[in-house]
């Protein structure tokens, strides 16, 4: 392929097909027709003299040559994307929708703050539940299905960066009229009472086990759930206990008539971080979004 024959648009289409593993999705993202995208791929393959994709089931799969090509040109396209976005400015006067993946506790904290924010202008910040696996989360962020994620897990994906966002901690909740537990809780009392446990969606572990230094022993489990709201509701109408993140316990304590009690074990801080693709690091829009979300917790 001669230098004077290089057409960057061919590589842009190739990268979209490569990232989405679909001609149909790539065509939709790029605003092109499927035959148009297929034609571009055919032209690029002819110019390079290699096959880039093969049929795989009902879809397509990249060849080794496609993996190598993407590995070498994707960083360059990311730099071009960042350079262009660095020149552009971001304004809340323009209509814009941001999608943020986040956990249930953070969603419960963020939504009231977003709704009360009168400075958003024509910007919408849409909260979606975080995905059930790290692989799916990274894949969707890479596909630009969301602008960023907020999570307490640590990620090692090389094409992504993270920033500190918010620290939380564990506590124990009980209903205010509990016949045996009032304001304080010993380890012996913790194990003597029945519990409503919360299993984390991604880690396949219980909340109390994941954020404590000690190994939590076997509890008397009355119910298991995967929602903080369900967990708090059950505690408010029973004599069970539950391990809970303190920010949410404090938020709902009065309306659900709950006690918020210090946990009788050594707690590990629940550290939330913002996660986004490297190509978003210098984007004025993404910087605005990250700063806006951080501003909601500046006094906490």
From TrEMBL:
InterPro entries: LysR-type_TF, LysR_HTH_N, LysR_subst-bd, WH-like_DNA-bd_sf, WH_DNA-bd_sf. Pfam families: HTH_1 (PF00126), LysR_substrate (PF03466). Keywords: DNA-binding, Transcription, Transcription regulation. One of its GO terms (molecular function) is DNA binding. Residues 6-63 form the HTH lysR-type domain. Belongs to the LysR transcriptional regulatory family. This is LysR family transcriptional regulator. It comes from Vibrio sinaloensis DSM 21326.
């Amino acid at each position: 392929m001669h230098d004077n024959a290089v057409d960057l648009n061919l590589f842009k289409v190739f990268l979209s097909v490569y990232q989405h593993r679909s001609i149909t999705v790539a065509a939709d993202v790029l605003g092109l027709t499927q035959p148009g995208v297929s034609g571009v791929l055919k032209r690029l393959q002819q110019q390079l003299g290699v096959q880039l994709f093969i049929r795989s089931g009902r879809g397509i799969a990249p060849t080794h040559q496609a993996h190598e090509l993407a590995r070498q040109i994707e960083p360059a396209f990311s730099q071009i994307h960042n350079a262009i976005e660095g020149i552009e400015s971001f304004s809340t006067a323009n209509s814009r929708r941001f999608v943020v993946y986040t956990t249930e506790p953070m969603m419960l904290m963020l939504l009231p703050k977003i709704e009360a924010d009168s400075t958003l202008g024509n910007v919408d910040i849409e909260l979606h539940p975080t995905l059930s696996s790290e692989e799916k989360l990274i894949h969707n962020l890479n596909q630009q299905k969301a602008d960023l994620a907020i999570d307490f897990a640590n990620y090692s994906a090389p094409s992504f960066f993270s920033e500190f966002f918010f620290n939380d901690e564990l506590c124990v909740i009980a209903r205010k009229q509990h016949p045996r537990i009032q304001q304080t809780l010993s380890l012996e009392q913790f194990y003597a009472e029945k519990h409503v446990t919360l299993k984390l969606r991604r880690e396949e572990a219980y909340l109390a086990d994941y954020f404590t230094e000690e190994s939590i022993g076997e509890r008397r489990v009355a119910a298991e759930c995967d929602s903080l709201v369900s967990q708090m509701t059950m505690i408010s109408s029973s004599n069970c206990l539950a391990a809970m993140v303190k920010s949410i316990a404090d938020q709902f304590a009065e309306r659900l008539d709950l006690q918020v009690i210090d946990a009788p074990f050594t707690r590990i801080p629940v550290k939330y971080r913002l996660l986004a693709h490297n190509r978003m690091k210098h984007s004025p829009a993404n910087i605005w979004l990250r700063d806006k979300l951080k501003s909601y917790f500046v006094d906490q």
